[in-house]
Amino acid sequence: MHKCTEVSLGGKLNLAPIPADAKRILDIGTGTGIWAIETGRNSPPSTWKVISSLVLTCNDLSPIQPKWVPPNVRFEVDNVEEDWTYHQPFDYIHCRMMGNAIRDWPRLHRQCFEPGGWVEFIDLDLTWTSPDGSLQESHASKKFNKEFIKASREANIESCPGLYLEGWMKDAGFKDVKAEKFVWPVGTWPKDKHLKEVGAWNYLQIMEGLEAFTYALFTRNLGMSKAEVEVICANIRKEIKNPAMHAMFHLHVAYGQKPEA
Questions:
Q1: Is the peptide bond before 44 cis (omega within 30 degrees of 0)?
Q2: What whole-number distance in Å separates Cα of residue 77 and Cα of residue 59?
Q3: How far is 40 from 50, CA to CA, in rounded Å?
């Protein structure tokens, strides 16, 4: 996900204008911590000693982050859906790929409402489509996609939060909200060189993570057996290997700033 997002954004780690004098950054749901590590390492000036005044606080429910990190990156175990206990405001808050993790998105946006601070949300609309109709309703991939989204919503999980990020930010009171949408091809079928690279990374993460995305939701919520899920995954892999099927979905980015008090 990280590499696919980075390539999609033209090599950038974020689109929001992080203040040059930023001192405190929060990374929500940091996962492996790769975004925070690269941000801490690359923030100008380039030497860690000079940028030690910039501190990145990164939270997640799972302590799976590496031990060797830039000295300005700090990991902590926390649930962002509980009441926040931070006592100092953040200059920038980053939240990426938290679909299927957050139950109350509007509340999360309200908790991110820091005076003068910038907030950026990056997430997906997982609705698979195609620009030429080559993805049909009869395809296993399309059936799977619709069942996945339906089962997620029945479990009170929004698997397509990208669609709503801009609206949630505006409802929370952010100003100067900007929103952008990026195509994520499934595979290397696009003629455009940039989209072909994005599609290659997307294809890789789908092929490697398909069962991980699917097992829990389909067995617990849809009552399928493990064997049934494996058959579905095998059919999807067969279809997305076919260059004639031009499937894609979208990445959404929304960012804005809280007005000064």
A1: no
A2: 6
A3: 11
